[in-house]
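Lest this sound abstract, we think one record worth quoting, the chain in one-letter code, the fold tokenised, each line plainly labelled:

>
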Amino acid sequence: MGPVPDCAGFMDLTSYLRYAGSVARTGTLLQAGFSARSIRNAVAAGEVARLRHGIVAQAGAAPDLVAAVLANGLLSCVSATTHHGLWRLHAPERLHLLCQHGSAAGAVIHRGSVVPPEFPRPVAGLTDTLLHALRCLPPVEAAVMVESALLQGRTTLGYLRQRLPGNRNGAARGILDLVDGTADSAIEVVARLLFRSQGIYTQTQVHLPGIGIVDFLLEGFLIVEIDGSTHLERAQVKKDRGRNNASTLAGYAVLRYGYQDVVYNPQRIVDEVWQVLRGRVIR
């Protein structure tokens, strides 16, 4: 499970427990230097609740963290994304747990670990989280997570490849080929893979004189912008309008799409992109 920070830097048990995710095994608290008596006193005072023998939690503890501790596991794969600050496309329908032994009803269980947890919270280390995702999730969803970690400078493609040896990990290694670290958001990863899957020459984050940086330039003349929520703000709408006009005046075609379009209606995007490209592709 990795080293557990001791209680020296914490005034009391409740502060430490909050640091640990507001739920913990009593063994974790004992390892951190708190006494069994201090745990009993905190329960008696109503500062923490005993969920069952050996597990205590504070009010408001995140349900996924509570479920992980109750299952004697660690959140991993897509279930660990929010705790690691990673992008994800969809919230998981089932909990994904790293459990070295046993199982949990209704959960997706991952085995094998190459790094210790990064903190006392019941969350698998970043490397384990990414490796589990590469072996478990659809390629685009796993690529989104890896690209997020790559952009944060928290891993490298070479490091992950080294930890995916042999034929059984061939598909997982193949997903790493989809990651290039050029996206500004999860949805841009999806759009990039969509365009390239169609055999369209796709450049990302291209600076065009008089226009600025565009999300995508397809076949050298079609600009595709992926709009997030900030593009609905008045100032951004005005800026986007000016960029669209500048793009048209410079001879580019422009298409704009949002999250819902990319995730839930990709075929419409493909059809519209090809409608613009058809007859003008010179390669």
